[in-house]
Structure formats: structure tokens, C-alpha cells
Amino acid sequence: MGAISLNKADNLYWLGRYAERALVLSDYLYRAYDRGIGPGNEDEGQSAVSEFCQRLGIQTKFASRADFLRHFFLEQETPYSMAWSVKKAYENGFVLRDLLTNEVFAYLRMGMNTIESLRNPDFFEIKDVIDYLYAFWGSLDEWVPADGASIARWGRLSERMEILYRFAERERIKDLGDKLQRVFFILDLPVQLDWEILNGDAIAAVTYLNGLFPAAYGTGGRDDEQGPL
Amino acid sequence: MSMIEIRRKPVGRSIREGALEFSIGQEELERISTSFDRYAITFGLYKNQSFQDRVFPFGVIPRVIGRWEFDTIEKGLEQRVAALNCFLADIYGKRQILKDKVIPEDFVYASAGFMPECDGVVPPKGIFSHISGIDLVQAKEGAWYVLEDNLRVPSGASYPLIARKLVRGLSPELFGPLPVADSRDYPRMLLDVMENVNQGGLNILLSPGRYNSAFFEHAYLAEQMNIRLAFGSDLTVEDDFVYYRDVSGKLLRVGAIYRRLSDEFLDPLEFDAESLIGVPGLFRAYKKGNVAIINAPGNGVADDKGIYYFVPDMIRYYLGQTAILKNAPTYLPLVEKDKKYVIEHLRSLVVKDVSEAGGYGVVFGDRLSKAKLDELKSAILREPRRFIAQEVVDFRDLPVFRGRRVVRRKADFRAYVLYGQEIKVWKSGLTRYAMDHGSMVVNSSQGGGFKDTWVLYR
Q: Chain B interface, mutation test: which of A1, A4, A5, A7, most B Cβ atoms within 10 Å?
């Protein structure tokens, strides 16, 4: 379809970020929870919960690991919860329905309906939400023109890189950065990632990454950290 | 008689509608319901001051209209829309129909839909109403009546369009032997309408935003036509040309806008200065002939409920023909003899406030208390131009599932008439049904449901 407006690009970018946030966090949540499973692992489990919160800069204290899990999976008003991220992805996707097509948007819808219907953070049922999100990403490539899909992927890669920086897991940064560079190529944007910054201090690297959109288009940046919706 | 059977566990016995008979399985009903939710086929409602994006209730048993019946409806609609377009051209041009006293001047100038700003403006190719949604009802004895003309921003076509797609997918075997007219051409027809008047540049569907009741429709039609869905802030006007601004700041010329917002919000420089959803300068670009607006601004004067009374006269005046489709028997309190009749028979009439739409401002005399009836009488005597009154047409009930039960509900039919190189009627349409037993209010904005409309070709 060709040209995309600034509003739509903004929604695509944040759609990518929120959809990816839900996916990545579900993985980290499970890992944190898993460390406490089994006899004698209670302390380890508690410290995993604390570490998870600390990495995301969250002050909340939890009475139990079950509370922690419920909070981050199902609380719809909590930034960084999976339910909140899925809802934000859905809201951004909603205004992009024409561009995403009905088929792609349906996966966001089903993901949101499923997580909203959950009363307990059941890992098997959460898996359905994760499946819908992966289906969303797969169908995006199938149905959405390259420029639109690439902007969403830009958001996706930025989000994953930010979370990896937060959790001090830098092994995959190079690979993700290379993928982001290819996104710029597809979008015909004259951006060369600054590896000196990306390999340096984590806060500076995240600030740099988050400043790329939409400044790379020369249309000025946004100071709205949470995106348009 | 053709029998439609969808296998597995049928819900109740077979149900007849028109020339067809339906027997539908519980599993299929559930699958359709799931599909509507999956694709978020929604029609938003404002209730208790909050917006609810609810899945639009779908009655799976379609309305069935036979070929000969539809042929008459089609001819009548083409005739009606031709006359209404002549009327709009005349009202914003020479106003001959007023000079010839076919319609009283007051009716036009006092209409909320009359826009003096449009005086002398001729839209591209002289077409005013590109997409007309004409609401009809079928009385129990079979006669069809036009209830209302919608020439501003008629909505709803996307719902039967996608419903047909889902039902085709669910029961493809049905559509082989059954002579049901293919309805998939609506996006193509709509695009042809846009191309016909495009002044050079992109086709755009301009939406007020995601909190519009019909946002699903805006997105779906844009997707199906493969055109851009834009919000006001995506468009800009420079030197009286309209542009779509892309993310890099590049300006792309816009040639035709299928707008889904009301006239008053189109351009804050010309109309409602508070409008944040319009495009400043758009009306000036339109007046200069640099962009087509679909439908043309100012059309509200022709779909005014008071002007409706005169449509058969317009047909006679402009086309020299007798109206093929009847209006529901209507009275204008502004006309002295009608006023007398309305006041005397108020209890048996339905009264409509001409400034309202979407089923609002409609009151049935027989449902009012004595005090309310007196209040209404006083209002009619005080402001006769504000109301029309109609005989209540006891229109046909159609079968609708309520859980596993089949009940019957009042339903109307919105036909879509598209004016491109020629006037064409879409061979389907939106059948809306009332949710409650006995209710005649079928409007989607009032919680009604919808059905697909199957037009038979033999």
C-alpha cells in the first residue's frame, strides 16, 4: 500500500514493542518462578522475584510467589504485566486494523480475549496467549507490506534489546542489532547503529535505542515513553 | 423450495424465510459466534457515558428477497437516488423546484442539513450522493415502504459483507445450488465510485477515530478496497490541495476522500471550529474542485425527515415519473390539514423529530401516557417544522435465534445505492432487527442486531 503516516508508524512501532514485551516478560517470569520450585528452594525463589522486580525498576513487594505471578501475568493496570502489554498491543493494533488486515489483527484479539478470561496464572493457558502472539508475528510478515511490518519489527527488536540490557544478558545484543540494521535497510533509512554506544553503558545504550524512532525519519522524536495509546 | 441444511445437531426444526428453509446446527451457531469475536466485528455503543465496543449481534438466518421483488426495489431505488441527486444539484444551484413551489422554501432553508456554504458548489461530475443508504420496511402484506433516506454518511454495508464471507466459509456447499446473488463486489463498486470522481491522487477513507461506533467498518472497507484509512491529523491542505503526510514528511496528493464524519466536523475553518477530527482547509480545496468528498457536504438537506415527504414529488418533477417505491404514509404538521390530523390521531401515529437520527427522537403515540401525549401535542403545535408523523407500518417479523430458541423480531432493510458512472444497487444489504419482542427500533446504535440479506437471482 506504500506510504504510512506518522500516526500509523507510531502505532506500528508501539504495537511491536508491547507485543514483544508480553512475549519476553512471560519468559522471564517463568524463569523467576521456576527458580523457586521444589523443596528447599523458597529463598532462591524469593530472591528471583526480587531480582526480577529490581531489573525492571519496580518497588512492589509481594506476599507470595503466587501473588507475584498473578500481578505480572494478569493485572491489567500494571505496566510490565503481560495482560497490560497485550492490551496495549491490541489498542495500537485496533487503529491499524486496515493495515494489519483482519486476519493478523485477529491474533491480537484472541490473545487479549484469552488473557482477559484467565482467573489464575495458569502456565498452560498463558501458553495459548504466547501462541497467539507468535502467530501474530508470523502472520504480520505474511499479510502486511514490508514497510509496515518492518516498523513493527523495529519496535519488537528495540523492546527485546532493552529488556536484555535490563537483565544484563548481552550475548544476543549483537545478533538483534544486526537484525535492526536490516530493518533500516528495508525501510531505506540511512541509519548506521553506533556499536560503541550499544557495547557501552546499558542506560546510555537503551536511551540511544529508544531515541532512534522516529528521529531516523527526520520527523523529530517523541518524549512519550509509553507510546501513543 | 430449497432446503438449507447445516448438519450435526440441528437447532429446533427448520425455519422458513422467503423462498428458503433453514436448519442450523448448534455447533455452527457457536462457530459463527466465535468468528465474530475473533475478527472483532463490532459496533460501538455509548452507554452510561462510556464507550462499549461490543460484537455486533448477528442473526444467522438471512433475510431472503426473491428476484422479482428485488427487481422492483432496485428500479425504485435507482429512481429515488437519481431524483435526490437532481434535488441536491437544484437546491445548491438554481433552486427551480422552490421557484415552482413544489416544495415550500421554508422546508429547505429551515432544514438543519441545508448548508449555505455549499451554495453554487458543484461536486466532481455533479454527483452529490455517491453512497445512499435507503431504509425500507416490508409490511406484513408484502408491500415495501421507504422509511428514510440516508445521504450523508450511511453506514453498515461491511457487516453483511463480512457475514457472508464467514457463512460461505462455514458452509461452502450451500452456495453451489442456491441462486443467491454474489455480494462480494461491494468494495469494488465502492472503489469505482471513488475512482470516478477522483481529482488526481490517492483515495482515502477519512475516519473520526477508533471511538466511532462503526470503526470496524472504516477499517474493513479500507482494507478491502486497499486504500488508506486516515485520521484528520494524517491529512494537510496546502495551496488548496489536500495531502497525506507520510512518516518521512513527504506529501502525497489526495484525489478523493470517502469521509465517515459529519459535515460539521469536516473542516474547523469552515464549520465547527472546535472540531479536532477534521482537516483545516478541506472545504476550500473541495470548492475549488481539487478533491472529491464522498458524500458531498450539504446532503443533509435531502435526507431531512421533513424533505422525505416530498420525494415522490421530486421524482415527478425531475424525472417525470411516478415513484416506484412508496413512502410510509407521512404527515407534516407544518401543513395545516396534516397538523389537524396529527393532533387528532396522535395516539395511533409514530412521531419523529427531524433533527434526530439513529433511532433517537422516535416516539410511538400508543406508548405514551396521557400527560406525555399532551406534552408532545404542545411541542408539535409550538414547533411544527420539528416533527413528522407517520402511520405505523406493521412490518414483517423475521426469525432470529435467541440462544437455542427461534423468536421473531421486527426488521428493516438498508439498501445501498452507489452512484459512480451509473447508479447501481448492491445486491445485498443490511437487515437490522430489534432486540426486544414487539419493538420497532432496529437501529444498531440502540442495541439492535443485524442479518445478511440474500437476494435471489432466479
A: A5
Q: List phi, psi (to 5°) of B150.
A: -120, 105
CA quadruple B3, B5, B10, B13: dihedral, nearest 10: 0
Using a CB-CB cut-off of 8 Å, the residues of chain B touching A219 are 247-249
Give dist(CA B265, CA B256) in Å, integer: 17
- CA-wise closest residue to B86 among B135, B146, B126: B126
Give residue for cell 500494571: A78
Ordered per-residue pLDDT tens for chain B, 458 residues: 455 565 556 666 678 888 888 878 888 888 898 999 999 999 988 877 788 889 999 999 999 999 999 999 999 999 999 999 999 999 999 999 999 999 999 889 988 899 999 999 999 999 999 999 999 999 988 999 999 999 999 999 999 999 999 999 888 877 878 889 999 999 999 999 999 999 999 999 999 999 999 999 999 999 999 999 999 999 999 999 999 999 988 999 999 999 999 999 999 999 988 888 999 999 999 999 999 999 999 999 999 888 999 999 999 999 999 999 999 999 999 889 999 999 999 999 999 998 777 667 889 999 999 999 999 999 999 999 889 999 988 888 999 988 878 899 999 999 999 999 999 999 999 999 999 888 887 877 778 899 999 999 98
For chain A, the distance separating the N- and C-terminal CA atoms, rounded to the nearest angstrom, is: 24
| B209 contact residues in A (CB cutoff 8 A) | 95
Q: Closest Cα partner for B361 from B338, B381, B388?
A: B388
CA distance B66 to chain A (A): 32
Q: Is the dihedral of CA B217, B218, B221, B223 positive or negative?
A: negative
Report which of B443, B241, B223 is spatially closest to residue A97, judged by C-alpha positions: B223
Residue B10 per-residue DSSP state = B
Q: List alpha helices for B5-155, DSSP H.
A: 26-38, 67-91, 96-99, 105-109
Counted across chains A and B, CB pairs separated by less than 8 A come out at 76
* Cβ <8 Å between B39 and A109: yes
Quote the cell numbers at residue B329.
Answer: 404514509
Q: What length is written for chain A?
A: 229
Which is it for the CA torsion A31, A33, A36, A42, positive or negative?
positive
Interchain proximity A98–B218, CB inside 8 Å: yes
Judging contacts by C-beta atoms under 8 Å, the chain B residues touching residue A109 are 37-40
Does residue A105 belong to the interface with chain B, where contact is any CB pair within 8 Å?
yes
CA distance to partner chain A, nearest, from residue B416 (Å): 22
Is the CB of residue A179 less than 8 Å away from at least one CB of chain B? no
B-side interface with A, Cβ within 8 Å? 37-40, 162, 205, 209-210, 215-216, 218-220, 222-223, 226-231, 233-234, 244-250, 252
> Touching check for A94 and chain B: CB below 8 Å?
yes
- Cβ pair B248:A94 closer than 8 A: no
N-terminal to C-terminal alpha carbon distance within chain B: 12
Contact A30, A130 (CB under 8 A): no
